Every structure is written in C-alpha cells, then in structure tokens.
Amino acid sequence: MKTIILSTLLGLSATCLAATAQTLPQNMTVDVPGHSLRIDVPAQPRHMLREEFQQFAGAYDLSNGDTLQLRRAGTIMYARIGNQPEHRIVATGRNSFVALDRQLKVRIDHHDDGSVGGELVMVVPARQLADGSAQGEHLATLGFPGR
Questions:
Q1: C-alpha to C-alpha distance for 65 and 78, rounded to whole angstroms
Q2: Which candidate, 47, 86, 108, 144, has a CA 20 to 30 Å from the CA of 66?
Q3: Model-level pTM?
Q4: Successive 10-residue mean pLDDT values, the chain, 147 residues
Q5: Which of 124, 129, 126 is nearest to 37 (CA)?
Q6: Is there a contact between 118 and 109 (Cβ–Cβ < 8 Å)?
Q7: 3-state secondary structure of 133
Q8: What does the CA dihedral 91, 93, 97, 100 come to, rounded to 10 degrees?
C-alpha cells in the first residue's frame, strides 16, 4: 500500500515538474523562422568575367529528370530549364545566379572530385490536377547531382 501511494506521489510530482518546465515567460521565448524559398534579384549584381562563367556554362541534369542549361551570348547570361523559354540571369555570388524575371535562382557547386552539386529554386506555374483541383503557382527546389 505504501508503495502504491509513494509511486502515485512521485508520478504526480514528475507531472507537475514537466508542466512547469514547458511554460516560459514571454521574454524567454525564441522565434525560429522556417526555411523560406525566395527568388530575389540583387540591387547590385556581381560582375562575372567570361572566363569565370565558362566553368558554369553547359547542361546539368536535375533531380526531376529535366535539364538546366546555362550559356552566355556576349555579355548576357541565360538559363533554360528543359524546353521552356530562356531566362536572362545575373550572378549573385561566385557560383550563384538569379533570373531577372524572378523565375529561378541557381547555385552550382564544383567539388574537388570532379562531381557537381547544387540547388535550383524555380517558379512552378499554376496547373490543373487530374482530380480536378487546381494547384497555384509555387516555388520548388531541385537538386542536381551530376553534370
């Protein structure tokens, strides 16, 4: 009988401690923002020489089976996904680019072992789904494991 009472009291005190541990004063809380996808064009794009861009020019296989192509014509750089229209791009970093129409941004990582990785964030247009519902325009992230 003493064991039952003692275990009940211990259980209640543990529950009370857990309840008070979960309540924090307002000044002790921390907001943690989620990862938000955004495509922003910088006010001042990074100047990239033809020789610098040459290492990024070419075709990249994307994780969804599509292809990303980067090319340069004179001083203008372009990106194309699959058979979609080209997007004029500017450099935002030493290995990253964004479309001036805010439809895509890409980061390309060349690894020491010769492999290529990176990330493409693109606008997926609104579409009608097979079940009759509609999916609005949204941003999607794709990776590309090879070149």
A1: 20
A2: 47
A3: 0.69
A4: 47 51 58 65 88 94 90 95 94 94 93 88 82 80 67
A5: 124
A6: yes
A7: coil
A8: -50
